[in-house]
Amino acid sequence: MISIKPDFCDLSFANDELLGIEDYESSKARWCSGCGAHTILHNVQQLCRDEQLPPEKTVFVSGIGCSSRFPHYMKTYGFHGLHGRALPVAGGIKFRRPDLNVFVITGDGDCCSIGAGHWVHAIRYNMKMVVLLFDNSIYGLTKKQTSPTSPLGIHTNTHPRGSVLPPIHPIQSTLGFSNVSFVAQTVDWKPAHLYATLKKAYDHPGLAFVRIVQRCPIWMKDSYEPVVKDPNAITLLQHENGIVIDSKATQKFHNLKEHDPSDLIKARELVETTKDTTPIGLFYQNKEATRYDEYGAHNMGISAEDKTEAINTLMDKYAI
Amino acid sequence: METTSESIHSETIGMERKEIKESIIEIVSDSGEGAQKCGQSLGIISAKMGNGVWTVEIIPSEIRPPARSREGASGIRVRMGTDKITNMGGHADMVVALNEQVLYGRIKQQAYKPGTYLLIENKWATHTEETKEAYEQSIKEFTELGYNIIEIPMEKECLKHVSDARKGKNMWVLGLLSNIYDRDLKLAEEQIKAIFSKKGEEIIQNNLDLLHAGYEYAKDNLPMHFSIPTKKRQGDYVVMNGNEALSLGVMSAGIEVCSMYPITPATSATHAMAAALENAGGIIHQAEDEIAAIGFAVGASFGGKTAVTITSGPGIALKTEFIGLAVMAEIPLVIIDVQRGGPSTGLPTKVEQGDLLAVLYGAAGDAPKIVLAPSTIEECFHYIILARKIAETFRSPVFVLTDANLATGVQPFPRPKVNPEWFPGPLDQSKWKEGLRAYDWDPNTGISKRPIPGQKGGMYTLTGLAHDEESHVAYQPDVNQRGAESRSRKLAALGNTLKPPEIHGDEKGDLLLVGWGSTRGAIEEAVDMARKNGAKVSSIHLRFLSPMEPGIKEIFKNFKKVMTVEINYSDTVGQPLITEDNRRYAQLAWYLRAQTLIDVDCYSNVYGQPMSPIRILERIEQELGQTLMD
Question: What biological-process terms (Gene Ontology) are attached (chain A) (predicted)?
């Protein structure tokens, strides 16, 4: 690209070609046709391309479930591990590898049921990573069992007479966890908003928790179709510090609501006052929250001599 | 007491010292009275003087059991001698008891013999009527059992120097024992200064006063005084317990992430290094639970920083799912299991070797694992360094099985010279070799190279699902078979690098004892005693449980009978319903029977106690029909 040999600065990046979306694509996704995860995958790949994330420095970590197949469809490093356990693994990766871009892909069962304990603590650790909760409110991979976010009364294979408990509200819960720093909600069928949310989450300096309300065309068709078609079903949260989409896209929304994402109390209230619709946008952001990965990385790169000295100092305590 | 009579007294009482080869001392008290601090100090002083030492803590399960209760005994045993000491030994010679009730549990466990000195706090003789009666009754019972009872006004003596005797009695006792066993007072003073360094000058001085007062009291009032000659050691030595050795091992292995969730008796290993590890380039991560603790370690290892997770049996149970993942996805990982009594939460503070089969086989499906078991405090240190190297070379989780006996046992050993070669090299971020796949299993060894995030071209998605060489989810049955073969073959590849176990004793004989882990010292001492009296008995000690060391079957064939000695449960033939056919064996015995098809017997029990050489010797006598006791 530049035909000089630079010896005064590092222009090596100039020799690398720009990465295209195909550079992030791996094998063909095996989700059902019409599944919202396809859209999310494409938008995430777009984000990677737009941010020019080096694929070798990017890790997608997942648990088990439909959503958790996601890493297999990215041409980056991936970790498709155990049901509910993506967050501790992602934390372990980020703790001593601050150079890696870490994304966590988790589902409603994975995050809010079996992995709920890890969820509380991952929010508190607030390590820099993007956590995408693919919430289709149903167990898909194991064929239609009640999920912790399934609407009350929904008929499933485990609750054929209708589910008996009110659902967990992932946004409400996350806003209640200690040291929370970024909480946003979007839907898979509004790609412009989805993309803008992903971008905002990626730019956040701590753990960005994004719940993506996602369609399941196989097990939840009846629940989502009316919502997708109803222009009043969504409330768009607006603020200059929130998720900003262009005015043309904004015009498509009928319900607009101003919300300052720096106010945690208001964010919590907002969950209550918008329960009849699906609010999308940034509920809360605090860029100053304590980050555990900063603690994790604070003593990296200590020389072998210093390590030896530290060990010998401790061993002196036991010397005879 | 008048001055003249006091000086006559000390001349007649304190001067004669009997030289002995070794002694077993116990200090038993209510929880919180500092018996362990006293015993550990005695052990460290003795180790520093050049004696061989082994300590065993006597711990109640509760943090603060009711005072003066028979179940509440908290204390420590210190065995020290001229030669190297490798285990807790048999009957105690000298016992200091801060109340008489706590002795009952130890008597029940046959810790004492007629002639054992019991130095008992006598303030209870003048306490409330009820206490006084109990005290007198106990003294009577103990006398009948043949113990050598000496009542001592410990509290009264301590109150001459401090206002709260409960907080000072332990250092007074240290002084007392220092005189009885001719310990170096200067080293004792140093020890006190080190223990109380953060508490200020006044506290240090109080404790020094107590030490000297106890010392003087023994000199002036007690009839028994011993000396235990020391041997000069070559080179530098350190003295520590097994958990401290583990922690130094973790640091010396260059491990950057030590991920844990508090559990007894494993946790103190992390206390030992909590502050120092950060200076050595590592961090302790206290996770939200045991599962998260290993998940975090797995993540760090995936990121190229091979991590360690430290836990005990119930923690292993919770970690099992991730252990299976680490086997399937071939993640290097060091897992330290400081075993305690089980099942379930079992005996949290007491020893058992009950997790062997759980770590060998406890996982979904066939998950071959590498399992090491250090048998000494020194090995606790070195095995961690070895474990990390094996984990990385074989891309596998590696278990290090210690137990509560090693965790708290204090023993001197040659000071390791920290070698920077023990540290891992810089993170491999070189370009991934083109054409090489994430699981390019070598057909001979099953070993594949480990791509580390950051390596260009090495991108793969690790998965716990069956996968092919490229880590793609396997939908063909032959891929699953191939993957399973490769993971299993790695163990054979490691096994081929091992040497056969050394035989302690002759290569042929009537009886071979087989042990693993912390029982080594007791087994070998029993074997030595038996051999001295003409028994044809030998022992081997397995350090690798999986893969197994080679040549074991050949060794077994040279003995008429083979028997494991281990601290876990086994049925005894002849007990209700138990026959040769349905008998359940001790864990190593099960395993050896399956591996060798030899009729391996076992001697095991779960009293929560370390194995004692005397009990093993009794069993050898029984097996051989010979009298072997001196």
Answer: cellular respiration; small molecule metabolic process
